[in-house]
Description:
five-stranded mixed β-sheet; 23% helix; alpha+beta
Amino acid sequence: MQSHPKPPNPSGPAAVVDVEQAEAALVEHYPRLVRLAYLVLPPSLGRNRRVLTAHALTQRALPRSRKSADAAAVPAQRGSGPHGDPGYAYIRLQVLRSALDAGLPLRWTSWPKRAQLPPLFPQVRGLRLFPRSGGADELALDQRLSALSGAARAAYVLRGLDGLDDAAVAAVLSAAGCDDPEDALDEADDVEERYDLLASPEFDPCSLQARPTDLMRRRQHMKAAGVAAVAALVCGALLGLPGEGWGPDGAAAPPYARNPAGQAALDPGRLTVATAAAWKRSARTDFSVWPARGNLVGDRALLRRALAVWARPGESVQVSATPGTASGAPPGPAQLLFAGDVDSARVVLLHDGLRIVRYAEPREGTSGAALDFARVDGAGGTEANAVVVDRADGNIRYLTAPWVTAASVQDLLKPAARPAALHRSKDGVTDPFAGPAQSGQCTSWNALRLRDESGSVYMSSDLGELVPAHLTAGRPEDPREATPAEWSKSACSLATVRSNGVRAVNSWAYARQTLPEGNGAAQWVCTRAETWRGGGSRTLAQFQTADGPAGAVAAKAEDTPACGSRDPQVLAGVRWKSRGGSWYLLAAGSKDVASITATGGVRVPGHVLATRTERDAELSLTGTLPDGRKLSPPR
């Protein structure tokens, strides 16, 4: 535990802030104050309510009176923060105090504080508002902050947003009513210092996306306004019936329509369950033949909540979907893959033929439930080997396919090291292991290695989604299972395709080149990430020297057939400095390239080129194929 500086003595003289000064600070720093409130508010409120509550708390932070006598009594907090403005420090203190109050549990023995209740204003009817989604780093930070207490979140945010030192943070927390600022600072120390992420759109409640809440019910209510009171009584009676009310559905939103197919999809008794030996008799190996596993497959109440939340996720449910994946209700009864206790959560995995759906809720209660969607249409064999059941603190647990006989972890950056054996439970759930680094320096990249009953070994990489991406190597027309050595210098490039709905990534060493001036040799590698949705593929050409730790990016493109099965040709070039200090233009194409033309009209036969150049010279390349077609670098 770190030792933190003591907060300054609050008994000293306080500055006086008049109402006009406080109002000016509120107007000038409104976006920062709302962001602070949003980050400190408990995530269990749901993103829509957090947004509205953050604005409400900030707008209520001004003193109630504009009289000068009252204004003179408004104290400024000692230490005015990064802005050097006592007005800002005062408003910040009021916002922080209210945000911490909002996270307190409601008690029957006392009246709730205003911040604990839904905000009266602002109100947005017919829409749900939430900040724009960030990347995997922002999501990971949001998950880490959600596990902290309100005071610890406040300490982390005050450090990151306002740059306060620990003594100043302790003073602010103490003034805001925190009983033990030292504990809050110690708890905040456990979260990685990614303060730059706090300024991302993920945490900006002033830059919002809007989605309709319930268009069908709104239209029905407008047409049936004359009988609304009667309809409310009828609905109230129906919702009070056993098994049909809000309670059994957990965090699901109220139902707005009923039809036979929709009702069948919500019935736990109608879930499809494959037998334990179905995969042995089936002509295919995909998710449709996975048996239902886990210690809670018979918990009908849990399965009912999972299906209800899938159909109608409430505002408090954290919903995520890979790009191109629909997040709507199931079209009919789904298949149950798993239901069980995993770490601190109850997890349910479902499959509807097109998507894998993961529902997770805390072991105690349903507040903070999560719903994740991943597209898996056409998955078979190697692409249906594993599904993420839990992800926490950078660690991952997988549920493996029934035909998997052994699992291990291989650090791709250390291809010579032996893979570490990965223990699995009787249900096929792996022990947790560290996933690939999500930020900072790429010092390791753990891949999942699975062996099936035939003895074949398949390698996959977590890219922040439910289903890991299958790693292959070789020519795009006929890729094979990859070895760690074939990915050792390309593994870190996988970070560029994280959270993009990637199905498989192929690494192809398409050319080797002897470097000028006896500087050894290099290879040219093309990695191509294919997605489940078809579009959005990404191609990256790299120049890799034998003694270098990783490759230099020579070309990259999105939605291009280059380096793919349809058009496996590729061409790329870089400016390179020899150990003697000379600059060269190096280029290489796939073996079918007959000649390369470079800047200044330099033309060489074959598929590799090396010519002297200047450091800042323009780089222009054109390849010619045997049939006369021209080839350019991916862009």
